[in-house]
Amino acid sequence: MDRGWYWRLGLVIGVTLLTVWLLVPSYYSLFVLDRADRNNLALLEERMPKWAPPAKYRINLGLDLQGGIHMVMRVDTKTALQKRTERRGDQIARYINTDKQIGQVTVNTDPEALRLSLTAADPNTMDAIEKEVLATFTDFVKVSRDGATLVLAPDEGQVNRFREESVDQAMLVIRRRIDKWGVAEVDVRKLGTDAIQISLPGRSDPEQAKELVGTTAQLEFRMVDDSTDFFRQTFTQTPPPTGSNITLDTSEGFPQLVGPNREALLAYVQPKAPADRQVLLECIPSATRKGVCDSYRTYLVEKEVPLTGESLTGADASLSQLNEPEVNVSFDAAGAREFELLTEKGTGRRMAIVLDDYVQSAPRINERIGGGRARITMGRSGGRPLDVWLADAQTLALALKAGALPAPVTTGEIRQVGASLGDELIRKGSLAATVGLLLVIVFMVIYYKLSGLIADIALALNGLLILAGLALFNATLTLPGIAAFALTLGVAVDANVLINERIREELSHGKTVRMAVEQGYDRAFWTIFDAHVTALIAGFILFFTGTGPVRGFATTMIIGLLASLFTSILVTRVFMNYLVHSRNAQTLSV
């Protein structure tokens, strides 16, 4: 055997061992734990062996397989646009009459038509007012002008952007709230242009879910107590429970606690906080999964709330002159006075920006800030790329706007999927997949004999690879996913049938066994590759354009097709080469 064969054999063995290792959490979650405990990651970590991968690398069961709550929330972007137009009218009047003092205007708002009518007290000042307004408030465009009256309307591009951001803001708040509820396999995604689809597997109280995600977010500005040694003393005097993975962190310049489990971290430190202080958490986002927290960081903040998001009128992310990401915020007149007083008293301290009890950011106040406008500089430490920092700034801006100017969210649909139905679907789906697989295995052995047995071994590995891929990417397995699982196994069998038929054809032409195997694989390769790539393109289209079960089907299909390429082209060839080279076979059962 040549060196290349040993390299390929080592690769096959390595992939097989990795596959089995990745499936350990899924096995314990689905077959060892009770159904009620499937979402309990802490219990799963305790029950698994120490050498197993983290509990998060497991196959999640979708709503149709384990039961739960399905919700569709409607985001009222029309009402949000009307309120935004009214606020812009107030801002324009204040800007012209007070800030610039280039004339006096009265602003009349038509919320239904999204129109602003500016009427100047002195018609001679209208030219200067029009020029200043259009140059400053670029999100509005001129509709018409009749003497001393100027009619404005929102720019169409800005309207579309605002609608998208309104849905994004609502999704951000909903994700944060559901994370506090502790649902492990939550699925929150856009549905159309103004709706959000929410799946809460394992939950059974629709009214509690409706209350959780349907109330208005609360944005607060609170002072951080970063001069105390509270967290260090707590960590030293009362060590955290074994297995909680809570550590002491000083990377922000003052002691903080960091842990992977929100409830465990709060239960450990919150009861020890001083009476006039509160412990809040900051989400440290996952580098690979959007909307998921890898861990949490603590902040000790004052209980007093000096300023809320009701006074915030805007927040936008941008790049500074030094090419550093920043977030620019603005307040109304009352909020501007409160913010100026807050920054004057808190110069040199950190101010926590809190949305729904989560710290979104805690910038340091460098000086008193007047005028109702402030800039939050994100900085660029840690060697992270600029686009990552800018994404963080955009997320913060969304969080600020979500708390300050939330679009009304109503429940469009809510229903409960019974767990008993999910169990029945699992049984029937698994039975169908098992029966189909057994029939294929028997057929391959009877029709292709030894080469059919090799194809069956590769087929079994192909199935394990699909399940391991779902676990690795923390994908959710749905009933359509089971259908995709069976479909891709069929595709894998088809590839092996094509290879075996090619080998038969070469043997019928009088080729030696070695030559028939080599040329059979070579000539079948591009046909198999083209078929798989075509199907992969269809799978990716389904994944990026579909929602819910369609994406579950596409995910399993994509993983299955990649596994099929690996097993049909590489795995079976390793075994076939062993038979015809190492054992010097003169005939082949094919």
Could you explain the architecture of this structure?
The protein has 590 residues and is of the alpha+beta class. It folds into three domains: 3-66 and 418-582, Multidrug efflux transporter AcrB transmembrane domain (Multidrug efflux transporter AcrB transmembrane fold), CATH 1.20.1640; 77-159, Gyrase A, domain 2 (2-Layer Sandwich); 216-410, 2-Layer Sandwich (Gyrase A, domain 2), CATH 3.30.1360. Helix content is 52%, strand content 20%. The chain has 16 helices and 21 strands. The protein has a four-stranded antiparallel beta sheet with strand order 7-8-2-20. Strand 10 and strand 11 form a beta hairpin. The longest helix has 54 residues, at 419-472. The chain is elongated and about 100 Å long.
Mean pLDDT, as a whole number? 81
Which stretches of 5+ consecutive residues score pLDDT under 50? none
Number of separate domains: 3
According to CATH, the homologous superfamily of the largest domain is Multidrug efflux transporter AcrB transmembrane domain
The second-level CATH architecture of the largest domain is Up-down Bundle
Give the structural class: alpha+beta
Strands ordered across the widest β-sheet = 7-8-2-20
β-strand percent reads 15-25%
CATH class of the largest domain: Mainly Alpha
Radius of gyration: 31 Å
Contiguous helical run count:
16
Q: Give the biggest beta sheet.
A: 4 strands, antiparallel
Overall geometry comes to elongated
Helix content: 40-55%
- CATH domain fold name of the largest domain: Multidrug efflux transporter AcrB transmembrane fold
C-alpha end-to-end distance: 22 Å
Number of strands: 21
InterPro entries: SecD, SecD/SecF_arch_bac, SecD/SecF_CS, SecD_1st, SecD_SecF_C, SecD_SecF_C_bact, SecDF_P1_head
Subunit structure: Forms a complex with SecF. Part of the essential Sec protein translocation apparatus which comprises SecA, SecYEG and auxiliary proteins SecDF. Other proteins may also be involved.
Function: Part of the Sec protein translocase complex. Interacts with the SecYEG preprotein conducting channel. SecDF uses the proton motive force (PMF) to complete protein translocation after the ATP-dependent function of SecA.
Subcellular location: Cell membrane
